[in-house]
Structures
1.
Amino acid sequence: MRALGATDRILEVFTHKPPEQTGTVKLDRVDGHIEFNDVDFAYPTRTEAHIFKNLNLTVPAGKVVAILGGSGSGKSTLIGLLTRMYEPNSGSVYLDGVELSKLDLTWLRHNIGTVTQDATIFQGSIRDNILYGDLDATPEQVEQAAKLANAHDFIASFPDGYDTTVGERGTLLSGGQKQRICIARAILKNPKVLVLDEATSALDVESEQLVQQALERLMQDRTTLVITHRLSTVKNADYIGVIEDNHVIEFGTRDEVLQIDGGRFAAYLQQTKMHE
């Protein structure tokens, strides 16, 4: 019985068909303006349950947009659509006015960096894990990325430094250390579009502060989509969107969404007693 749940997930992965590499366009310049236009989406194995219906969302270039919503509202699904892990059933997603399906897939994903709650760490050295962001980076660039990510000090404390083997899934590292390695990787990658998916939700207070400092450096001069259910992470966002009932029900600056009569964001604030 314990295996049944895992088997369903394994079959889902096996039967998933990745998007075809039909696009060939590589933009000479990326500003990072993102648009979701009338997007309908349901997962292939659950076509009767729509995640999105007529979803519209604009992420202006160079701005920080925080997306809030309850569990299962589809916040993380936005990432799958943006990186073309999935295709909309209808509607379109655009980057700088070009439909994603027309863009070269490898090029697209190279220009999008992600930092998620479940930090992905590979068996190997710390250096190798950071280099995954840019295999051609120099040792000096790796170290600079680690410094910006608040990771250099703890790396230097290991006897083997950057050559320390972290173990499978980074068993040698704490949660906060894993996140800072992933941030260093993203800094090295230097994407124009950044997606943060619950990046600090599983950390203790001290680790969260170090990671948040690193994220603020990473977010500079980039279009950033912050996926979260925690109101503490949206204070510095330029815009806030709330997803509910398969679409974006509220969108605007913090003041604008707070002024919505009976608005969900205002209710979230009241429920968590986070009035300023």
2.
Amino acid sequence: MNNVNRKFRLVSLLVLLVPINLIAQNNDSLKTRKAQITFAYPIGSNGTSSLKYSNNFSFNILYGLNGGLNGVEIGSILNYNRGKVKGFQLAGVSNINTGFSNGFLLSGVSNVCRDSTAGFLLSGVLNYSKGNSKGFQLATVNIAANEMKGVQLGVVNYAKKIKGFQLGVINILRDAEKAVPIGLFSIVKKGLYEIEITGGEALYSNLNYKMGVEKFYTIFKIGYASYKNNPVYSTGLGFGGNLSLSDKQKISIDLSCNSLVYDNDWKGKLNLLNKADFNYKHSFSNKLSLLAGPSLNVYVTKEKVEGEYGTLNIPYTISAKEWSGGKTFMWVGLNAGLSLKL
């Protein structure tokens, strides 16, 4: 019963944070104290006046509400500051700052900054910055609601505008003029969304979908060929980028890995075609382009058909090496096709 009562009191204290946050106002004329210690606001060395002080060292046993920080702050659950924060913050659950934050913010769950930030934000779940951001954000989800200069690294990254790059599974950008989103899905306002229909010497027909920006995009691929009168299907994933030569001319460099399925055997052995495509693209309009160029192909397979390795019609090889249980082929081929921007 005692444990239940303690937990109830703790939850009640945390609930008080919501109205306190709503009524707290920024105050630049904060008094400075070298150190403060708080068990749980307002039980601490600064008492109910803690929002009037900026501290050089702040230790919050459970959670603390303070005016600002110029130094180091540690809290087992929550660190809250309504003024400027400069230095190092460590929280078991969350750092919440309503003023400008500059330094290293480390938390188990979230860093929430309602003003601009500069420095390093690291959390287990969420980094959120309402104002302009500068530096490095590392979390499962990173949100820069305004302009950011630096790097976002997470599963999901969002920025209104970024000068730098994003690395994640899902990247979302509203302005990518000077940004490089690197991820599986890069959703960019006025970004690159393109469909290509191409053909080559081994995979006769390919449908490629590209999304991202001109400098870096993700490629989703499907293709078809035939071998010994049986179908060969391919599914692939890759990355690439465009180099602009002029308004109507570009060079695209694409790297991809394609899994091959022979004769509808979807549970077959290792059968991968790895490609490096170098295509010249000439635009006939803002939407339509013609592309053609060489490709370097490295084919790795364990599949055998009639006693021979491979399920592709390879025109020739510059290298063919058999190894334990498989074979690797290498050759230079050609691609040609059409590209349509969406």
